[in-house]
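Lab notebook, design round three. We kept the backbone fixed and only want residue identities now. Task for the bench partner: fill in a sequence for the structure below.
Input C-alpha cells:
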C-alpha cells in the first residue's frame, strides 16, 4: 500500500511543474471545465472525494468503484443565451474494480455570421463540443482506490473541427482511524495540444485535491456530508470549493426507490441570467 501511495505522489510531482507553467487564458475546450450532475453542482463542485456514482467519470474516475452494481446518470443543463449542456454516463461494478463510460456535450445554434460590421448578419452557424470518456477504477486496499479515464475530444464551430484526446488520473484514500473521512486527488484533461484550423491550443489541465467527511446523524435520522476541493487549473488561479449535503431518511433531493432526481440552480449576478441543471440517476 505504501509503495502505491508513493508511486501516485511521484507521478503528481512530475506532472505538476508542467501544469503550473502554462499562461492564464491559454487553454481551449472550456466546456471541459463545466461540472456534471446536479448533486455535485449543488455541493459547490466539491466532489473529488465524495462517494461516487456515474457522474464520477467526470469528477474523479477512482470514485466509480463506490457503485454497488450498475449506476446510470443523465443530466440536462440550461445555460444563458440558449446554451445546452448534456451528460449521460453509466458504471458497472465488479467488486474490486469498475468500468464506466460517459459522454458530455455542449451546443448552441443560431449564432450570427458576420465578416464585417453590418446591420444584418449574412447567415447563422452553430457550435458543438463533446467528449467521450471510458473509465476504469480498482480498489487496491481497504483504504486506497485508484482510477483512470481516456477521453476522445471533438470541437466543431460551423464547418471547422478539431479532434484530440486526453487522460484523467485519480485516487481516493480513506484515512484509517477516522471513520467517514476520505482524501482524494485528481489530474484532469492531460493530453497533447489540439489544432483548430492553423492555431494550436492547450487542453484545460486541472489538478484537484479534496477531502470529504461522511457522518451519520442518528438524532435527526439522517446523514451529513461535508466536502472541500482545492482546484488548480492550467489557465487560471487556484480556487477552493466547499459543499455540504444532508440526507434525511434517504429522501432528500427527491430520491425514491431505485431512482434519484437532483436539481440545481446557479445564479449569475449579471444580465446573463441563471443556469439550471436536472439530473436523473438510476441504480440497478
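Proposed sequence:
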Amino acid at each position: 500500500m505504501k509503495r502505491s501511495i508513493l508511486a501516485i505522489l511521484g507521478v503528481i510531482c512530475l506532472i505538476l511543474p508542467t501544469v503550473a507553467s502554462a499562461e492564464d487564458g491559454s487553454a481551449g475546450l472550456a466546456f471541459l471545465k463545466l461540472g456534471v450532475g446536479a448533486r455535485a453542482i449543488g455541493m459547490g463542485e466539491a466532489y473529488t472525494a465524495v462517494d461516487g456514482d456515474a457522474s464520477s467519470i467526470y469528477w474523479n474516475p477512482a470514485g466509480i468503484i463506490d457503485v454497488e452494481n450498475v449506476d446510470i446518470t443523465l443530466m440536462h443543463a440550461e445555460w444563458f443565451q440558449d446554451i445546452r449542456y448534456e451528460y449521460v454516463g453509466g458504471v458497472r461494478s465488479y467488486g474490486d474494480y469498475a468500468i464506466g463510460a460517459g459522454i458530455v456535450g455542449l451546443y448552441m445554434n443560431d449564432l450570427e455570421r458576420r465578416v464585417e460590421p453590418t446591420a444584418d448578419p449574412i447567415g447563422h452557424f452553430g457550435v458543438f463540443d463533446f467528449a467521450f470518456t471510458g473509465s476504469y477504477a480498482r480498489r487496491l486496499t481497504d483504504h486506497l482506490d485508484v482510477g483512470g479515464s481516456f477521453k476522445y475530444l471533438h470541437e466543431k464551430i460551423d464547418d471547422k473541427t478539431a479532434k484530440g484526446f486526453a487522460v484523467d488520473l485519480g485516487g481516493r484514500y480513506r484515512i484509517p482511524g477516522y471513520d467517514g473521512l476520505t482524501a482524494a486527488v485528481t489530474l484532469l484533461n492531460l493530453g497533447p495540444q489540439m489544432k483548430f484550423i492553423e492555431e494550436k491550443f492547450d487542453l484545460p489541465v486541472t489538478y484537484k485535491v479534496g477531502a470529504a467527511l461522511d457522518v451519520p446523524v442518528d438524532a435527526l435520522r439522517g446523514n451529513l456530508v461535508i466536502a472541500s476541493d482545492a482546484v488548480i487549473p492550467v489557465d487560471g488561479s487556484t480556487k477552493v470549493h466547499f459543499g455540504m449535503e444532508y440526507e434525511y431518511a434517504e429522501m432528500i433531493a427527491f430520491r425514491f426507490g431505485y431512482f434519484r432526481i437532483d436539481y440545481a440552480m446557479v445564479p449569475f449576478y449579471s444580465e446573463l441570467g441563471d443556469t439550471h441543471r436536472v439530473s436523473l440517476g438510476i441504480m440497478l
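Keep this in mind before ordering anything: DSSP finds three helices and 14 strands in the chain.
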